[in-house]
Request: fold
Amino acid sequence: MNFAMALDYQNCINCKACEVACKEQNGVQLGADKQRIWVGQTEKSIFGLPFVNYYPSQCNHCLDAPCVDVCPTGASHFAEGGLVLVDQDKCILCKGCMEACPYDARFVDDKAVAVDKCTFCYDTRISKGETTTACQATCPTKVRLFGDLDDENSDLVKLLKKRKFFVLKESEGTVPKLFYLFPENEMFAINSIGSDTTIYTWENFKPILEKAKAKRGM
Amino acid sequence: MKKFELLGIEINKVPLTQLLFNKTMLLAYVLLAIGVYGIYDVIVERYFIDAANAFDAGMHPGSVHVAEAMKEAIFGNGGEVKREEPWTIYIANYMYMIYSGSGIIFLVALAELFNVEIIKKTAAGFMTLGLAIVFGGLFTIALDLNILHMQWMFLTPNLGAGMWLMLPLYSVYIPFVVFEIYLLLTKKHDLVKKIAFGILILSVIIDIIEYYIQAKLFNMNTARHLWTTYPNLTLYFIISAFVASSGIMILYSMITYKKNFPVEFKQLSSFLVKIALACIILLAAYEATAFLFIDKDWANVILFGRFKYDFYIYMFFAIAVPFSLLLLSYIKENSSPFFMAVASISIIIGTYIGRLIFVYGGNAYPMSDRFGTGFEKYGEYSIAKSFIFTPPSINEIFVIVGSVGVVFMVYAILENFLDVSKIREH
Reply:
């Protein structure tokens, strides 16, 4: 298994139901700075016309995750399904993983005095037989789709075969597994995607995944 | 003073009052008291802050702790660690102390290897000072970490992580330096003569490994391009550490030897001025060229953005002032104590600012431009930041002051028992 998520971010209305559901489901510390998932925002204007981009975000569960490499105690580790998880009992709060993460996806949980991050609801839902994460289940506009990349018949792979997509900060070489679907509206795409971004099809991206898996012995 | 001998070393029978209430120890107590105040607040903020999750809020709606946690969640400053800036002044201070402490030890080993007589005579004092500074650095990092979980460093080690490599490194390094100091102090001259060369070579190798591991620690943070694109980070750490170390050594020799050993002090200062000048020239050359290779986003923030004045101040204090003053001393062949004192203090301040720029600079360029469309806002009501910098809190600064107290205390204790600063003929 190789868990991942596709995000049709064009549909995000910034209702933050995903943030609330995540906190409720996973017992995440309360506070605006303590988010496992969040909706990023950028504000711009073109020819005087302002617009806001909403970017639903969380840990990318990278296949070649630098946070795992830098962790001195193995607290950050690869778990079943290629998930990147934190064993909070082992965390010595060196914060190296936070420095290594190119997505600012980690924060310190003041209750546990340890680093915390998105788990794709593995311990609270997926391992108990659920097939969706809390953020996916609660999203009113169906932004997220969680699934298994190794299953060619999964809804996730079917969607990625149908739609083009991109990943974040590809140049960092982390092989992230949040797949942002290329917007159907062309203007929206121009406004919300950087010019250096590579747009992939499933066939283009699959070899990158395989290479990263081979490197990590997955 | 009465002495007794242990393993070939003469140890002073210091009266307890003299040990605990000498000038250096009193200064150390003041600094440590400030440090303890900072530590108390840090521990309270880290381990005893009221924090709650949705379960707590649902199960204990009337709890005072939940109410406090809610207040903190809404009006608080987000806890001890900032998501966008995890490493702060603790890391900068740790770097400064560890690098300059081991820089002193490294320089002494090199000087002994090249048979510099005056350094051989004063090596024990310098090495003890270096060791004391290393302890100051370790004190800082120990406070920065969650010490309650440290057993996992032994139980489930990640052998490839730069952070984990610190453990075996200092487990070997500190006893090794202690052994070197022992060899400098012992009367077993035959033993020393037999192994001295081998130990010196080993010392140089261990020092280089130390800086390599430190560079690896930063280099593994692939997202922070200041640290990954800094050319030859190991070399940079060594050169910059040597500059800081030479400044500290000059100041130490002025305090320790100038009054009571004027002849030796003259030789020592003449040598240290040359070393400091050479290191400053190397550092200046490094800084002048390094930014040609450093990622432009980070170079922009440091050279032309938020940190530009800090960088100028760093250049002024670490390079321009000491270079001018020490060059004058060198040309006149009569080291002016005033110039040397100003130069050494300037070096210490300048190189410290350099470390702050290195650590804070690594986090200065935000990670939030994830889609290539500009920096994201971190909250609904905040504004997007084009750089990240949060000044250290007063408690953090107090802890740093406390770490200086640790240096004074460790040195004073060893000096009282072992007379490490005594000039020894070998």
